[in-house]
Amino acid sequence: MKYFFLGLGFLLLLSACQLSNSNVTGEDNKELAVFLDTYYEERLKFYPIEATINGDERYNDRLLIDFTDEHRSTLKKFYKEQLTYLSKFDREYLNTNDQLSYDVLKRELEVNIEALGFKDNYMPLNQFSSTHLIFMQMGSGQVYQPFKTVQDYDNWLKRATVFPAYLDSAIVYFRKGMSSGHVLPKILVERMIPQFRSVVTDTAAASLFYGPVNLMPVSFDIAEKKRLAGEFNTLILQQLTPAFRRIADFLQHEYLPVARTSTGIAAIPDGEKYYRFLVKQQTTTTFTPDEIYETGLAEVKRIRAEMEKTKEAVGFKGDLKAFFAYINTDKKFTPYKTAAEVIAAFQSIQELIQPNLEKLFSKTPKTAFEIRQTEAFRAASASAEYQQGTPDGSRPGVFYVPILDATTFNITSGMQSLFLHEAIPGHHYQISLQQENNKLPKFRRFGGNNAYVEGWALYCESLGNELGLYKDPYQYIGALGDEMHRAIRLVVDVGMHAKNMTREEAIRYMMENEQISEAGAVAEIERYMVIPAQALGYKMGALKIRALRTKYEQQLGDKFKVHVFHDAILKDGALPLEVLEKKMDLWATKQ
After folding, report:
1. Alpha-carbon Rg of the chain, whole angstroms?
2. Using one digit for the tens of pLDDT, what is the confidence trace for 271-302?
3. Any idea where the domains of the chain sit in the sequence?
4. Do β-strands 397-401 and 369-373 pair in parallel, antiparallel, or remain unpaired?
5. pTM over the 0.70 mark
């Protein structure tokens, strides 16, 4: 922070009046631009792994223990100072783009400051979305962390050397949580323990973290190869393996016995208040948990009626539960024998929609795109997902598909809608176009919020008919299932965290209303247990984008062009929903 405020000291000498009136003409506010760029650069120092994921390699050798009270105190001070400085600009005198930046950053800073007032750092790791899982992906040599040069390898060795201290500090903070009542549900701890044990090996060569050595470029000279292999061997056997064993033993023998048997976050101190905050943070709206719950019930009812129509259209005799059982168990719906066949099926979906994409979008990403099978070490607890590429083209965007057993991969599971959501035009278009847009300040190019990002992806599932999909009623029932899945989330997430719904009740509700296996329902419900409110953003965001499209179709009539609408939605990056609506209303008046 000293560097930041000394570097911009001349700006602090400007009066608030000078700052606010510097842009009456509608030009970009240069002082604001400097502030936004500096904010992004200074913030990135707190998030070196995020920098690596964004393709910024300056911090590839760094790893911060980011959950300590000391670190969070420093971060909170940083955010408060940024908010104070932002307040010096008079929003009314900024042009449209600068007003968007002002609104997005103001909300981001206020929400981040509020978030740091809770003690979620006393539960520093979890089974679904956690630094140890990202670290394992990076250490495999195939995700995020580059391993192309000798310097890349040395960067990783330096970064990885910090990780044992990260895990040992996690034990310290888990113990703080044990003392204060901030503990994870027992079942989720049971899921974590095998993750840590999976990388405990007798030899370095058998370790996941030896992957970069196996992938070492042939251009490295023999001496460097020997040195690096030796240092990786020492890192794995003397540092990483003992650290992973220590935390696995701690979780199993010390933490698990005192982990809570309750389901929802309301069970921890200030849990109800924390959940209300998370709802606001994740949905970027002012909806209450009760309002979201009622929306979920209404959506479940609507989608269920559409499922009934589709069931009847294929001539199935029986209720929906029987229909789900039929498509889950009939062998004709599981035609694949190998993981390669599953991947090829997704590639065929990409080929099918390609001719229709230009009708719905004027702008398409330059970032390359690939489909890959999820790595074995995390596949059991992973969902299909998209991992962003880099704007310089050095890393493609990747759609990951977990395939534990190809012979059980069901074609009615929503393969087409899943591709539209996670891949094209969902996350790949939105994230890539945002990152490629040099006109956005970096904090918007590489930032985002759950409701917009996931809301856009879910909205893209509704474009299936326009893209030439859902012709097969069984693929359509899969798409309805995916939509139902997001509606169910509104019910079970709020239910578990605000209405005393148990894990078992949530699993049962999910299985009664969608085509999902018990194992699938368990994994989903346990995900919502550990990251409360995150699952709410999907449906709330999609409902908002669809409502905006319907409104403008009615307002503009023949002047409404869907590709122009989509380009406008995506043009300015991931905006909070309330900011997005104001922006799009202004867009509509100009059409």
Report:
1. 25
2. 999 999 999 999 999 999 999 999 999 999 99
3. 2-44+68-121, 131-261, 275-539
4. parallel
5. yes
